[in-house]
Amino acid sequence: SNIRHMASLEDAKVLLIVRHPFDRLLSAFRDKLEQCHGPQSCMLSNDWYYKKYGKQIVSQYRKKAINRFGDDFFAERSNFGSPLPVMRTWRSESLPSWWEFVQYILHTSPSSYDEHWKPASLYCSVCSFPYNYILHFENIQQEEKFFAQEMSASDLIHPRWENRNDEGLAKEEILGTYFNMLDDKDITALYKIYEDDFKMFGYKFEYKHLRLNLKS
Description:
Layout: H1 2-7, E1 15-18, H2 21-32, H3 48-69, H4 98-106, H5 120-123, E2 133-136, H6 140-150, H7 171-179, H8 184-201, E3 205-207, E4 210-212
Parallel strand pairs: 1-2
Antiparallel strand pairs: 3-4
Helix pairs in contact: 3-4, 4-8
């Protein structure tokens, strides 16, 4: 392809930005599926992610979720199954919960995942594409500054963060709140799906007694 040809040129600079696999997965869910995805006035009838994924996920896993968490789990007083209030738009019982989304992930082929939650090792062809730089989202300000200096573009490249949805909470707190809804079997199965991302980019996950990609 033209992109691959350009990347193979001697002076080409090819950049990949990676993120902790579970942070990325949860962030994608919270932005695309936990709330109506669009402007504040959005409706499910014009929410592409709901029509493409959310409606099917609820149809497949809602009964199992109610059996697991109880009838009140999707009540308004329980944020319709969300452990944290949504910020940008709104949420209702029609939208999938984190647990339902994880069940969908676990029972769907990764090759068919949306780009926002497909493993980077699959989506970005890490082993077959000549990346010159791999930056980590968690250290993006420092690493992006270094990259800009390398490119002699410090006056052109500036940090920015779109679709922020952390409510000012630490990522560990947010991850813990959502992963508390999952059992060990679910978390271990999730790790197996994203294991290459963990190992390729040096990420780890320690939660309760689970130690994933940590040396014992």
